[in-house]
Amino acid sequence: MHFVDAKGILSAHNGMNLYRGCTHGCIYCDSRSRCYQMNHDFEDIEVKQNAPWLLEKALRSKRKKCMIGTGAMCDPYMHCEEQLGLTRRCLEIIDRYGFGLAIQTKSDRILRDLELLKSINQKAKCVVQMTLTTYDEELCKILEPNVCTTRKRYETLQIFRENGIPTVVWLSPILPFINDTNENIEGILNYCISAEVRGIICFGMGMTLREGDREYFYAALDRHFPGMKERYRQKFGYSYEISSERSGELMRIFKSRCRENNIIYDLDACFHYLQEFPKQYTQLSLFET
């Protein structure tokens, strides 16, 4: 872990990444790709130590309240968050200034900030996004070795439901020949239905591979799935987007179950929900001094 002073913290679309790199160890992580120009080991977490100061400065200058997003490129609840509490400090600022939050994670460490997330949701809007990829617990431990399993994430979603905080699930990635099965998709969807998630984001039944990510993924295949790397090479070559040959059938199951249970699955609608700040709070903010 090393510390830097960032020049800015919010993107043009009000997203932020407080850390760079990750210690979850997921074998498929696209954030390892060389195109992101990470000039340090992926597990050597870069900590943007001045992020709270930058965030407060940015929120103080905004004329209208909006949703603040985090977790797209780097999980805000990695192991180092236990020690540093950087995510929590930023959430406290979001709460104090009355902004909304759309936060994405794979970790049940987010429950440490449950009361804070409830406060944000009461004042504006808080949406917790949880990534679910693999219903089978033993397989999950191979694919995502250093973070809680899918069952624990499902239990976390249930706790947010019980506390009135809306949730969205990212059903991604689906690895061809590994977890692209009816049983896997049905199992995850049953979790989502039980937890009463508001929406599910799914870009299709597949994954992406590019330089940096591909090498790490193939090395993991050699360790855990002998012969699978050659199967990938023969089937997909150096393609960036890799789709399961069962994609059509699995997507039909996905869409059908979502429609039956009033779960948003259209991508535009899902992202609109994540980015939409409640109108009543937008109006109130116009009269604040």
Explain briefly what this protein structure is:
The chain has 12 helices and 11 strands. It has 289 residues and is α/β, with parallel strands linked by helices.
Overall body shape: globular
Number of helices: 12
Q: Helicity range of the residues? A: 40-55%
- Please state the oligomeric state of the protein chains shown: single chain
Strand proportion, as a percent range, falls in 5-15%
Spatial order of the strands in the main sheet? Answer: 2-5-6-7-8-9
Spatial separation of the terminal alpha carbons: 40 Å
Mean pLDDT: 95
Could you say which structural class the secondary elements and strand pairing correspond to? alpha/beta
> What is the H-and-E element order?
EEEEHEHHEHEHHEHEEHHEHHH
Task: Work out the number of β strands.
Answer: 11
Given as residue ranges, the uncertain stretches (5+ residues, pLDDT < 50) are 283-289
| Cα Rg | 19 Å
Largest sheet: 6 strands, parallel
What does this protein structure show overall?
With 289 residues, the protein is an alpha/beta fold. It has helices spanning 51-61, 80-84, 86-97, 114-123, 137-143, 150-162, 182-194, 213-224, 228-236, 247-260, 267-275, 279-285, and strands spanning 2-4, 15-16, 19-20, 46-48, 67-70, 100-105, 126-132, 167-171, 199-201, 206-208, 241-243. The strands form three sheets. A six-stranded parallel β-sheet has the order 2-5-6-7-8-9, with helices on both faces. It has a three-stranded mixed β-sheet with strand order 1-4-3, with no helix packed on it. Strand 8 (167-171), helix 7 (182-194) and strand 9 form a beta-alpha-beta unit. Helix 1 packs parallel to helix 3 and helix 3 (86-97) packs parallel to helix 4. 39% of the residues are buried. The model is unreliable at 283-289 (pLDDT under 50).
